[in-house]
Fold these 3 entries.
Entry 1:
Amino acid sequence: MHSQHKGHAAIAFTSEADLAAAAAAVRRLAADDWGVAAVVGPARKAPQHWPPELTMTPQELEGLQQQQAAAALRRAHNKRQRDRRQQRLVGSVASLLGSLAPPAGMHAAQQYKPLLGPQLQRHCQLHARHISRSHLAGSSTCGSSSSSNSADLADQLLAAMPDPLRSAVRIDQLQQLLQAQQQEQQQELQSGLIRLAAAPSVAAVQQRLLLDWSQLPGVVDPAFGGQLADADVVRAGAGRMNLRALRKRVQVESFVLLLLQLTLPALASNQHLHVVEFGSSSGNLVLPLAHLFPGFAFTAVDMKASAVQLLWKRVQQGGLRNVSVQEGAIELYSGAADVVLALHACGAASDWSLAQAASRGAAFIVSPCCIGKINKNNAAGLLYKQEGAQQQQAAAVAAEQLQQALQQAGQIQYPRSHWLTQQMDELAAKVEAEHQQQQQQQQQEANASTLDVPAAGAAEQRLQQQPLNPLQQAVLQAAGRSQQCRALFSLMAQAADYSHQEDHSYPDLAALAKSNVELDRGLSMAEAGYSTALGVDLPLHV
């Protein structure tokens, strides 16, 4: 047997003489002891992990160090500039939020209780004649009046549930949730910012899940069918479900509870409803809902072809006959809808979803996503970019669709509600008046110093160079009051984009800005005749 082995080694030397001596030694060693031929020569390219001290001349190294020092100075300067801009932004947004006067009985800083509660009890009472009072085994509990009431309410809910949902619900968790809601309602409603809680542990979420997800087909489970978890590892018992998959399950459970409440009358009378989810992506929300509510028709709408294809594949694998899929932009949807759903529809996509609900008088459950994209456009998903050869064609089609959509629905206007529009209008007038007064005062100071030429020149220079803060920029650089209100809203939206980690220096301000953005959305729907509520996801706030 004869085999050939080839390999490479790179060695750095500080002098040509050392390199030549080492090369000769390697050749002799290779020929005498190893019986191989060694080719020794300069490397074509130094390994990336080598430090510059080994690959550069002293002159090159000195130049590199100077460049690195200059880059460090630029980074430090840019950071100081960003910090100053952030502080100016924070101060302006704080002034903006402090000037808002919420409607009577409301406050954006208040932790609104979820819908699950008194309204749910009223629904059950109003439709008690349709709901059979069937006490399931293990559903009744003994104890306080609160416990009994929660058990009774749980029984009523279970009796109204479709069979797949009733089979999947963990009754003990449902009772605990209802009991906790009732206890909170008996206490005084305490104000507090609507904040996203810190990420819980995997074990804590698993213990408190409302549904037994093993009762659902794997293809409709966001953890398995949605490929958010390593299905083989989890099913083999070799690992636990990851937090991302569990969070998505919790989000689905939140929509299950709210959809159940909104549709109790229809369920009690066996009425068939049409539920539309906008921004459905690959179906992690609509598919489990379609399985749990088989008597309803579901339509999933998304503009990304790849997501629609994956969703349709899952529909076929799950044999879901009550699900249809539509590729297209939210604002172009023209079908029926009794209930509108949207989970994390970015930017204006949430507002287009609400607009679709309002145009049909449909109920809605919307859990908004990022706010910053509102500042870029309000054309929902029509500006989604495609790569490759179809990009130009897609852009032309998108432009045509955009014109068609705007003719049909008009543009989304910000602020959304009359309340916030009026508040922004009053603030814009106040900023204009204060700036005008400031200019007049500075001009008077300049005129008072006319005999002192140097002092007059300095006053004039201060008048010309006085920088505008972000609040003033939003108002004074916009043309017309509507644009001023839009600019002020955009300023608030900048601060409203924050994550649950809250890894910045103004989490309370960001939470308050976010609360006002969502309050504005809710009030706009209230002005359209809806009864709305603002809260966080059920039941785990994750």
Entry 2:
Amino acid sequence: ATPEEVEESLCLRMEDAIDGLSHIEESKCQAQEGSASLNIKLNKSADIGRMLVDIQTQINAINDFPSEIETPVVQELDWNERVVDVAITANTSLPDLKAYAEDVRKRMKVDAGLQLVSLHNFSDHQLRVELRESSLRQLGLTVSDVASKLARQNIKLPSGNIETRDKNLLIRFDERKITPETLGQTIISSSSAGSVIRLTDIATITDRFKLDENRIQFNGQPAAILTISKNKADDALRVKSVVENFVQQEQARAPDGITLTMTNDLSSVLWDRLTMMVRNGWQGILLVFGVMWLFFSLRYSFWVAAGLPVAFLGSIMLMSLLGLSINIISLVALLMAIGIMMDDAIVISESIAAHLDRGMAVDDAVLAGVKKVLPGVVSSYLTTICIFGSLLFLEGQMGSVLKVIPQSAHCESIEISSPVASLNCT
């Protein structure tokens, strides 16, 4: 079926079926040749499990679907994030380029284990048939006659199923002509003498795309773009590394004239932030150590500076236990929390040093020093909680993004940093 027929027979019926359901924020149905996909966005108050059941019930209740369609499937979509693109360029025709890109896409999934790979740059594939008017007149045929014969000999239909004890096998009749050569062999007319007229005898068949203007060029050459994404459980840096190894191996065995290039590497942003944080962390440790050494002893300077990596590693561990990922937003929160930790450590250390200078024993100086500044440290901690904690109550898309800041800063870094700062000088 054409996309227009799919939209009329599937999309409109499904959209009407779910129209009365609550908690639906947005719905969009995409019609393609032979298939339809209805994407539904729910609001935050929706119960996902209940909505899946309700939507499945409404879809199953549609009684005027075409008889030959497969059973509709309703499932929850995972959250995906783009990681990197692979541009495939070649001095060849666009159909051949798409065929090669589709082959690479399949190998990415099977060989490299990358499940979220999509192909861009191509509209729907089609075979254009240009009939010769003189040939039609000679055979007494019309355009409608030829179209009807092509439709009858170019079908794909489910033909039932075979149930066994272990599995259920679906049977499908597939007689589609998907290349100019096979379509050209379609019999249009035959005579009593046994001669046949095939489509290639009365028409010119070209292999092309529905929208030729949908093209992408990479470095001045036509290109196919493979987009690799990840779900919540995947590591962006690991996915990028797998893609990099696959591209190197594929380029080594690719035919002459075909080039695979990684581009739009969004994981590099995360890597740059991690590198910057590690570099700035070591610089911060050295600077803190040097500044503390100007005013305190070597012992104080060492323990205050040592609190930074201890608190940071503890934060990363707790983030992993709580299911929070390392991303740009959480890294910013960690950097802010580390700054607060260093302030607390310096204040507590200075108070302990002051009591030691008065001749107090080490244990007594630690207890007295911490007790003296405890109200100020706790108040600064509570103030930080109040300021950043308000982000947890933001709603909408912005709230879902910014809530990572208080989660990372409060639940991880600050909660660990304050006890560490108190213990550093013991």
Entry 3:
Amino acid sequence: MDLLLSATLGIGLSMDCLAVSSCYGLQAPNNKRLMIELGAYFGIFQMGMILGGSLLGGVVATMIYNYAKWISSVILFGISIKMFIEGIKGEEVCYETDRLRIIYLAFATSIDSLLAGFAFSIIRESIIFTSLIVGIVCFIITIAGFLAGGLLHRLIGRLSQFVGALILLFIAIKSLLSS
């Protein structure tokens, strides 16, 4: 697959990462270390899931396909509910040390990449170059989402916690409703 198609695939697969990273930008707009960490986790997970899907191949694809949207939806729904509760209680959430949450989100947002990897194994397409480009594109889009969330945080202040939770809830519902 050439560079343009790989980058286009990366953009498509990174849209959930864009939304999730904007939630983090809403919560911790000045935390540049967190921004880079999110970009790295999300990019590595996207890249790794495409490679993993390609290696596992079409056999596993049919087994996982029916459950993929449920897995990602449950994770995203749970995190959005937790964010709502934290917002209602007025708790300050420390996203810097909550790597487990970041890993859950990186996994949940990269399940589509796993399925894309399955597709590549079926059509016998080389995936190394494509997965690298997807990871880089996802890193860049995640950073952009974080920065956009930070800008929105400056505009809406404390409501940002609820906006972030609503975004994650929307992604979870969208995932459940997709075919």
